[in-house]
Amino acid sequence: MTHPNPFPHSTFSGALGVGGGYVPANAEIADGWMTLWALAPEGWAVVFRAPVPEITVTSRAQSIHLAVGGAKYPMLADPGAVNRALGYTTAGTVAAILDRPMAGAAADVGALRNQISAASSWSAGGGPQFLDAARRSGARVSRLGYGAIAAIGCGTGIAVVIIVTVLTVLVVNL
């Protein structure tokens, strides 16, 4: 009679931040251990291997940050999304300066498509399953997804509008 393995198995495929750039990488959880592999010039190399309970996993949007033994390892599902986001932000700013609303709208649509692409890469790379397996294997896991980030941004924007309005009313009434 065989017994099922009590430890979950999952892999997150993305890119590891190394020296200002990114290299293809896989973080794997199996048998209570996490192994981070990165592509080196001579082939795939183990960056670290540690028991899952010794690892802290934090995730924001399309990224996962692994921390073990005082070292941190940032991974992105789609590192190209960062450069594309910077490009769309720059295009939107230039369009606003030049008073080109159609170009600004095109930049906004591009930024939205980029965000959707990054979220798709996160799912395709196994992000949700990886976080679940890490949590079930005993790692400390926290996640701040796109919804929470958007809520924080909207809440901050509303707070700024309210503060500016209150200050304007106070200045006008003095």
Describe the structure.
The protein has 174 residues and is an alpha+beta fold. The protein has one domain (10-157): PH-domain like, CATH 2.30.29. The chain contains 4 helices and 8 strands. The protein has an 8-stranded mixed β-sheet. The longest helix is centred in the last third of the chain and has 28 residues, at 146-173. It is elongated and about 65 Å long. The chain crosses the membrane at residues 144-172.
Layout of strands and helices, then pairs:
Elements: E1 10-18, E2 21-30, E3 33-40, E4 43-51, E5 56-60, E6 63-68, E7 71-76, H1 80-97, H2 101-124, H3 127-136, E8 140-144, H4 146-173
Parallel strand pairs: 5-8
Antiparallel strand pairs: 1-2, 1-7, 2-3, 3-4, 5-6, 6-7
Helix pairs in contact: 1-2
Keywords: Membrane, Transmembrane, Transmembrane helix
Transmembrane segments: 144-172
Descriptors:
8-stranded mixed beta sheet, PH-domain like, elongated, single chain, alpha+beta, 174 residues, 4 helices
Label the structural class. alpha+beta
User: What percent strand?
Assistant: 25-35%
> How many strand segments?
8
Q: What is the ordering of alpha helices and beta strands? A: EEEEEEEHHHEH
The figure for the number of domains is 1
| Mean pLDDT metric | 87
Strand order of the largest sheet: 4-3-2-1-7-6-5-8
N-end to C-end Cα span: 84 Å
Keywords: Membrane, Transmembrane, Transmembrane helix
Transmembrane segments: 144-172
